[in-house]
Each structure stands twice: as C-alpha cells, then as structure tokens.
Amino acid sequence: MPSDSPRAVVPLTPTGQPAPTQSFYDAVGGEATFQRLVDEFYAQVAEDPIMRPMYPEEDLAPAARRFKMFLEQYWGGPHAYSEERGHPRLRMRHAPFTIGDRERDAWLRCMRHAMDVVALAPEYDKAMWEYMERAADFMRNA
C-alpha cells in the first residue's frame, strides 16, 4: 500500500551537509514538471487499447486535471486535490474498474514513457518510479 507521503530525497551541500529542505515538488520543477508528466501520460493513455477503455469520459482532460492535482499534492505541492475532492481514497475511486496485471502493466508502460520524456534527475526518477510501481500494485483488484 502506498504511503501518504513520498520518501524524502535530501540533497547535500558540497561539504556533505544537508542542504536547506526543499519539497520534492519544488526540486523537480513544480507545476510545469507535473503538467508535462501528466500530459505525456495521458497522450499515451489516449492511444493505449488497454488503458483508454478505463476512461469513460470522451475528454481525458478532467481525469488529467485530477491526476495532476493528486501527484502535486502527494509530492509536496499545492493541496488543491484535498481541498476539492477530499481524501484520495485511491482504491475506492478505482474499484469500478477491473485492474489486473495486464492493466497494471499498461498503466506502468504509459507512466514510464511519460517519466522518460520528463527526464527527472536520477535520484528523483528513482523515488517517483518506486512510488508509481507500489501504487500500481496497490490498485490491482482482480
């Protein structure tokens, strides 16, 4: 089960001392980075024969907006998701969809592509990818 907050990536100064704290969200570029990640992800979803049917809306924009708000909040950015939608309740929100290994793998394939395009620094990519894998595993219900 994914935790409610990301693992901290603590940057060090050249002397090896912890640098002033900065959220993961800010360290990776803030809103612009998360917007690009979500845009790239949903571009893949729109073309994926496994993923696209899981999004019943004609327009993927509402789902993309919600996902961006969720990711931003999770990684230390604005709390718009909670303010608008309350607790994430990820499993409950995904319960109407059958999510097995095939769907998990398709979701991760779309996300890996998006993350590769965004090209975070290796330590941030590693932390985010580990979260994405845990979250995808947690969402399986079939």
From TrEMBL:
Chain positions covered by the region annotation Disordered: 1-20
Keywords of this entry: Heme, Hydroxylation, Iron, Metal-binding, Oxygen transport, Transport
GO molecular function annotations of the record: heme binding; metal ion binding; oxygen binding; oxygen carrier activity
Cofactors: heme
Record has Ribosomal protein as a keyword: no
CDD domains (alphabetical): TrHb2_Mt-trHbO-like_O
One Pfam match: Bac_globin
Annotated InterPro entries: GlbO/GLB3-like, Globin-like_sf, Globin/Proto, Globin_bac-like_CS, Hemoglobin_trunc
Similarity remark: Belongs to the truncated hemoglobin family. Group II subfamily.
Quaternary structure (record): Homododecamer.
Protein name: Group 2 truncated hemoglobin GlbO
